[in-house]
Amino acid sequence: MGFSSRMDCCGQFVKYSLFIANFVMFVGGAIVFCLTLWTLVDRSFVNELLGTNLFSGAVYVLLVTSVIICLVSFLGCVGAGKEVKCLLLTYFIIVALVFVTMLIGGVLGYVFRERVQQTMRQEMRSTMALYGGRREITQAWDLTQERLQCCGVDTWHDWNRYGPVPESCCQELFGGQRKECTIFPTITNLHNQGCLYVATNFIRDHAAVIGGTSIAVAILMIFGMIFSCLLFNMIE
């Protein structure tokens, strides 16, 4: 395999451009993979409070496709370096399919960023009534309030309808000890911010990072497809 003398200079440029594009795609895919794992770990403690599977579905899609991106980009590097038309054709087909999947996942993550506050208030209020009765709901609220340092939906007064303020609302002291806030809750012994505001910003930030990164990688894939087509046609 090789280029004709007339196309040698241009062919070498396309070849190395494809190689560089795939290297950047590999790095981008690895970054998306790490970001999605980070999001899945951080999201686990609010999973019961989200009220929609749109965000988690988008994250799982991006997790799988980021792994495929890393593998396919390696295939593209081999195809470009060895100048194998079969590998380049396989690379183009797989990248085209992954491009659509990656773009959809990125768009879903970005769209969810704008829908967070609309869905979370209603779902969070409905789960407050189940606190103490369902283990997964209780753990989700406790972990959310502890890690995000918040209390209730909009304010700690939201808990007055359902019983005493949970201990997870109490401000933490040194050594894992907490101030007493369940009997006489005040702004000096519990978390003042509502969890809706804090969690909304938390999820929005995660969705924005994941969505933005995946869309950037998807755009890079366009260049990969273009260079692979050009190289495929130039190879004798």
UniProtKB/TrEMBL annotation:
Pfam families (alphabetical): Tetraspanin
Top-rank lineage group of the source organism: Eukaryota
Gene (UniProt): LOC117569816
UniProt subcellular location: Membrane
GO CC annotations, alphabetized: plasma membrane
Signal peptide coordinates: none
Cysteine pairs bridged by disulfides in the record: C151-C169
CDD domains the UniProt entry points to: NET-5_like_LEL (cd03165)
Membrane topology: Multi-pass membrane protein
Record-given protein name: Tetraspanin
Transmembrane regions: 20-41, 53-76, 88-112, 207-235
